[in-house]
Design goal:
- By secondary structure, the protein is of the alpha/beta class.
- The chain has 2 domains: 134 residues, Alpha-Beta Complex (Aspartate Aminotransferase, domain 1); 250 residues, Aspartate Aminotransferase, domain 2.
- Helix content is 40%, strand content 13%.
- The chain has 13 helices and 12 strands.
- Helix 6 links the parallel strand 5 and strand 6.
- Helix 5 packs parallel to helix 6 and helix 10 crosses helix 13.
- The longest helix is centred in the C-terminal third of the chain and has 23 residues.
- The two termini are 23 Å apart.
Length: 396
């Protein structure tokens, strides 16, 4: 029997739109529905909303509005950043460095570029999911044109040393000025970082940064790419003069307005992550005290405060996720992009997690609506589900 209780612990997959974000969108579905490229009054109102939103998001990232290009989301932003810089700078080099734990929107782009003649290096993480900046430095060649390392891992929550990697890239660029014309650009996928940690592109020292609205209580189908001034990048879409001639197409003003409001709220409410982190730690402690043969994937002290990846030996993760769903607990077996795949998570495999644990890994990701009562319900309910699945596994 399906439970009437509902506990949503899949905020890394998507978040419910904040009421203020929805409210910010409504005027551009009703009265101010004009095309932002039109010169009449309704067009000017839409254009004003577009540029105001661009300024807000620029402020949230510590940069100017002109550096913000709106996209359809994190996947497009990652594609745009990697393919755009790769093809624009191909005459200077063809080597790209990334990691083996990136989101598929990075890994699949790199796979396609390899088929088109690019040289791709995949760096492996340590057992916590951390990429060593020294490994980035060792991997750099004279032909390197791009480094792309995610900011916060979507499966285990590990926060990567982006600032330190940026320093490696900067130092290499300064040293190479005398012997080569090419410049190495540094891109980071910050889709899971925004709203969880403070973002300042100047302090981080990156050239390109991807973000998405639906991970921060904004609408789906809208994201942005930060492009540092002077970055050589090829247009992603042709046809019009929108977005600095880099991405043609009529702008989605309602979604952009909702994105801006969500981003503004995310920055204002960063302190909320402390409370969320305490709830995550309570969930972890409660489950580990009641269930044997469970391991934490990653290191909670080096990860985003909302993310907990637990590996239950002797359990199939998809089966556990389904059984939790029946009890009204919504969490993921791995990332939302790979759930349902028969093999263990590639992220956990790269981290060296044993298959018997990796195949039983569940990602719990908490959010602003998560309560003490939610956590208590999970601690009371999940142990019996794990025990049942283990007994079923033994008897089959």
């Amino acid at each position: 029997m399906t439970s009437q209780r509902s506990v949503y612990l899949d905020f890394n997959a998507t978040t419910p739109p904040h009421p203020e974000a929805l409210e910010a969108m409504l005027p551009y579905y009703k009265d101010n529905y004009g095309n932002a490229s039109a010169l009449h009054r309704k067009g000017r109102a839409a254009y004003a909303a577009l540029e105001e939103s661009r300024t807000i998001i620029g402020d949230c990232l510590g940069t100017e509005s002109v550096d913000i290009i709106f996209t359809s989301g994190g996947t497009e932003s990652n594609n745009f950043a990697i393919r755009g810089t790769a093809f624009k700078n191909r005459k200077l080099g063809n080597h790209i460095i990334t990691s083996s734990i990136e989101h598929l929107s990075v890994l699949e782009v790199c796979r396609s570029l390899k088929l088109e003649g690019f040289d791709i290096t995949y760096l492996k993480p340590d057992k916590c999911g951390l990429i060593n900046p020294a490994d980035v430095e060792k991997a750099i060649k004279d032909t390197t044109i791009l480094v792309s390392v995610m900011h916060v891992n979507n499966e285990v929550g590990t926060i990567e040393p982006i600032k330190e990697i940026a320093k490696v890239v900067k130092r290499t660029n300064e040293n190479q000025k005398l012997k080569t014309e090419n410049r190495i650009y540094f891109h980071t996928d910050s889709v899971q970082a925004m709203g969880k940690i403070a973002l300042d592109v100047e302090e981080l020292g990156i050239d390109l940064l991807s973000i998405s609205a639906h991970k921060i209580y904004g609408p789906k189908g809208i994201g942005a790419l930060y492009i540092r001034k002077g970055t050589e990048i090829q247009p992603y879409c042709y046809g019009g003069h929108q977005e600095r001639n880099l991405r043609a197409g009529t702008e989605n003003i309602p979604a952009i307005a909702g994105f801006a409001k969500a981003a503004e709220l995310a920055v204002m409410n960063l302190k909320e992550n402390k409370r969320i982190g305490m709830l995550r730690d309570s969930l972890c402690k409660g489950l580990l005290s009641r269930i044997g043969d469970v391991k934490i994937n990653g290191d909670l002290n080096k990860g985003a405060s909302n993310t907990l990846s637990l590996a239950f030996a002797g359990v199939d993760a998809d089966s556990l996720a389904v059984n939790m769903d029946i009890k009204g607990i919504f969490a993921s077996a791995g990332s939302a992009c790979t759930s349902g795949a028969p093999e263990a998570s590639r992220v956990l495999e790269a981290m060296g997690i044993e298959p018997r644990y990796a195949k039983g890994s569940i990602r719990f990701s908490l959010g602003i609506s998560t309560t003490d009562s939610d956590i208590s319900y999970c601690i009371e309910t999940i142990p019996a589900l794990v025990e049942h699945l283990r007994l079923t596994h033994i008897n089959t």
